[in-house]
Write a structure and sequence with these properties.
Layout (H helix, E strand, L loop, with lengths): L2 H14 L2 H7 E9 L2 E4 L1 H11 L6 E9 L3 E9 L5 E12 L2 E9 L1
Parallel strand pairs: 1-6
Antiparallel strand pairs: 1-2, 3-4, 4-5, 5-6
Helix pairs in contact: 1-2
Length: 108
Protein backbone atom coordinates (compact mmCIF):
# COMPACT_ATOMS: atom_id res chain seq x y z
CA UNK A 1 0.00 0.00 0.00
CA UNK A 2 1.44 3.35 -0.96
CA UNK A 3 1.33 6.39 1.35
CA UNK A 4 -1.71 8.00 -0.32
CA UNK A 5 -3.64 4.74 -0.02
CA UNK A 6 -2.63 4.45 3.63
CA UNK A 7 -3.94 7.96 4.31
CA UNK A 8 -7.24 7.24 2.52
CA UNK A 9 -7.59 4.01 4.49
CA UNK A 10 -6.89 5.90 7.74
CA UNK A 11 -9.88 8.20 7.20
CA UNK A 12 -12.11 5.36 5.97
CA UNK A 13 -11.27 3.29 9.05
CA UNK A 14 -11.98 6.19 11.41
CA UNK A 15 -15.25 7.10 9.69
CA UNK A 16 -16.52 3.51 9.63
CA UNK A 17 -15.29 2.51 13.10
CA UNK A 18 -12.93 -0.15 11.70
CA UNK A 19 -10.46 0.13 14.57
CA UNK A 20 -8.57 -3.10 13.82
CA UNK A 21 -7.91 -1.82 10.30
CA UNK A 22 -6.86 1.54 11.77
CA UNK A 23 -4.42 -0.17 14.13
CA UNK A 24 -2.90 -2.14 11.23
CA UNK A 25 -1.92 1.14 9.52
CA UNK A 26 -0.05 2.52 12.53
CA UNK A 27 3.45 1.77 13.77
CA UNK A 28 3.52 0.40 17.35
CA UNK A 29 5.22 3.59 18.58
CA UNK A 30 2.80 5.87 16.67
CA UNK A 31 2.31 9.37 18.12
CA UNK A 32 -0.39 11.91 17.30
CA UNK A 33 0.25 15.54 18.20
CA UNK A 34 -2.89 17.67 18.26
CA UNK A 35 -3.81 21.06 19.73
CA UNK A 36 -5.47 19.62 22.84
CA UNK A 37 -3.24 16.61 23.61
CA UNK A 38 -0.60 14.16 22.48
CA UNK A 39 -1.61 10.52 22.08
CA UNK A 40 1.46 8.34 22.51
CA UNK A 41 1.35 4.75 21.21
CA UNK A 42 -0.84 2.90 18.74
CA UNK A 43 -3.00 1.26 21.41
CA UNK A 44 -3.63 4.55 23.24
CA UNK A 45 -4.56 6.33 20.02
CA UNK A 46 -6.94 3.59 18.85
CA UNK A 47 -8.54 3.36 22.32
CA UNK A 48 -9.09 7.12 22.34
CA UNK A 49 -10.66 7.08 18.88
CA UNK A 50 -12.87 4.13 19.79
CA UNK A 51 -13.85 5.02 23.36
CA UNK A 52 -13.07 8.64 24.27
CA UNK A 53 -13.75 10.90 21.30
CA UNK A 54 -16.39 13.47 22.16
CA UNK A 55 -18.15 12.96 18.79
CA UNK A 56 -17.84 9.66 16.93
CA UNK A 57 -20.52 9.99 14.24
CA UNK A 58 -18.31 12.02 11.93
CA UNK A 59 -16.83 11.89 8.45
CA UNK A 60 -13.66 13.38 7.04
CA UNK A 61 -14.05 15.40 3.85
CA UNK A 62 -10.66 15.58 2.17
CA UNK A 63 -10.13 18.73 0.11
CA UNK A 64 -6.48 18.29 -0.91
CA UNK A 65 -3.57 15.89 -0.51
CA UNK A 66 0.06 17.00 -0.75
CA UNK A 67 2.84 14.45 -0.94
CA UNK A 68 6.42 15.22 0.00
CA UNK A 69 9.52 13.03 0.21
CA UNK A 70 8.71 11.56 3.63
CA UNK A 71 5.29 12.97 4.55
CA UNK A 72 1.76 13.32 3.26
CA UNK A 73 -0.30 16.38 4.23
CA UNK A 74 -4.09 16.44 4.01
CA UNK A 75 -6.34 19.50 4.15
CA UNK A 76 -9.96 18.80 4.95
CA UNK A 77 -13.04 19.21 7.12
CA UNK A 78 -14.49 17.09 9.89
CA UNK A 79 -18.27 16.85 9.44
CA UNK A 80 -20.99 15.77 11.85
CA UNK A 81 -23.83 13.35 11.05
CA UNK A 82 -25.80 16.19 9.41
CA UNK A 83 -22.92 17.14 7.14
CA UNK A 84 -22.12 20.33 9.03
CA UNK A 85 -18.44 21.22 9.35
CA UNK A 86 -17.23 20.89 12.93
CA UNK A 87 -13.64 21.88 12.26
CA UNK A 88 -11.21 22.39 9.39
CA UNK A 89 -7.95 20.49 9.69
CA UNK A 90 -4.55 19.81 8.23
CA UNK A 91 -3.06 16.41 9.05
CA UNK A 92 0.60 15.71 8.37
CA UNK A 93 1.40 12.00 8.27
CA UNK A 94 4.96 10.75 8.78
CA UNK A 95 5.85 7.22 7.68
CA UNK A 96 8.35 4.60 8.79
CA UNK A 97 8.59 1.15 7.29
CA UNK A 98 5.32 1.48 5.40
CA UNK A 99 3.26 2.44 8.45
CA UNK A 100 2.10 5.76 9.83
CA UNK A 101 4.55 6.68 12.61
CA UNK A 102 3.54 10.27 13.39
CA UNK A 103 0.52 12.43 12.83
CA UNK A 104 0.50 16.19 13.42
CA UNK A 105 -3.04 17.53 13.44
CA UNK A 106 -3.73 21.25 13.10
CA UNK A 107 -7.28 22.54 13.46
CA UNK A 108 -9.16 25.74 12.88
Amino acid sequence: MDRRDAVATYYEALDSGAYDRLADLLAPDFVQHRPDRTLDGRERFVAFMRDDRPVTDTTHAVDAVYEGNTEVAVRGRLRDADGETLVSFVDVFGFEGGRVATLWTYTR
